[in-house]
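S.,

As promised, the zinc ion run. Input:
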Amino acid sequence: MAHITTVNLSNDKWNETDAGLIAVGVFEDKSFTPMAEEINTASDGAFSQAVEIGDVKGKSGESHTFYLEGKRVLLLGLGKKDKYSAMSVRVAAGKASRSAIEKKVDTVAVECLCIDCKHCQAVGEGLVLGSYQFLDYKTKGKNNFELKSATVLGCTKEDITKGAAIANAVCLARDLGNHPGNVTTPSRLAEAAKEIADEGGMNLTVFDREEFTEMGMGGLAGVAQGTDEPPKFIVLEYMNGGDEKPKVIVGKGLTFDAGGISIKPAAKMDQMKYDMCGSAVVLGVFKALAMLKPALNVVGIVPSTENLVGAKAYKPGDILKGYNGKTIEVLNTDAEGRLILADGLSYASKHYDPEFILDFATLTGAVVVALGHIATGVMGTDEGLMEKVKTSSKSAGEKVWEFPLWPEFCKQVQSDIADVKNTGAPSQAGSIAGGAFLKEFVGDNIPWVHFDIAGMAWGVKPNSINPKGSATGWGVRLVLDMLDV
Ligand code: BES
Ligand code: MN
Ligand code: ZN
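Predicted complex:
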């Protein structure tokens, strides 16, 4: 874990704080934030001069260092004032943390960079996300400089500490994703769930291979046949909302996807350690519930295994029976995510009376073709729920784009010899085929949205709140916004 876990609040003035770096802001229209204005006045217009000379343009992402009254002051570009949003705030606060690390300064103080305190939560999120690095395997130490603390000056809103808690949850999701397949195993996911359950007073149930096979989870059991690494079916229950119906979140916990007998090409196969990032969304969300303890009922479900080749591995043509009794013809063993999720969705539908179900999965390469590393593909059965997803997507700054689950697509996963098959029409609408398959395992009348996060869980363009070569934790913030945590 290399990131700060809390953000401090202080009423110190800029020249009173002992932080090694103080960050304030300037917009593209050359207007300063209140504390920048103060510093500018106290320093005979040091900032105005830099603006006049033309070095400081106020563009988003820009930063300039000044040395004033023995302090290191960072003037951050905040971009266009009329476009300033929660995302701009996150990115600017993240830049403050990131700059401190680059300068090997271990304490940073920032002005509350949200104008009129509209986006204080985003300040807390940005500071923590910007401090995130994945250093666990860097034994040399020389590049292992970590930020120790961040303080927000002149704002006392609890939203800041809430934002910090939420970002911690995102960092947990990133860590789980970044650790390789020999560390983030299904057992490790179950262990992480145990730590979270203990912290948050939650119920945890973990079914192992023998148990879930006996229970009839033929999808998970089928995929897990090819590995000796013990598979797990993990259920977390956070029940703090009285008798309201639970909201259920299901996540694909495929800790390494070699494709099975329908094996993947070698190039980039290493990236399939990230194939558990759906489960990381679930665990990240539960980490935040443990920390913030909102009055809600939420259930998290993670089917988890590897998908490997071996003498016992399941084969193309095999027919499996899912937990809801439907038979599945396996036409490609690499379309395994939907098989394990099928059991997760059926379990949620059978054992709870969910208000809604959301599932998160790095399900298809096709979604990367369609939307790149810009947005997650979403599809579902309920317009109202989809609207909520879109609203939270905007406030969390995590983009989604809806695909249609039209009957024509749903027909494409019907099998000639079983109830359904695990592939759709060859080379067509692959992400929708995934959604159409999953729909078969969601109970009638349960509002449900499927998130295909294959383009967003890693591989996005790095910025101040997303380091290069790291899992992103995409989705944690969106779900927490939806839950109104
Ligand atoms: N985990 C992969 C999806 C994936 C591939 C995510 C590449 C990110 C990058 C999933 O299990 C998979 O292999 N899907 C297949 C489905 C196909 C066989 C119908 C795919 O996308 O090729
Ligand atoms: Mn696969
Ligand atoms: Zn997969």
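The two ends are 24 Å apart (CA to CA). Residues 257, 275, 332, 334-337, 362-366, 368, 423, 430, 454 surround BES (ligand 1) (CB under 6 Å).

- D.
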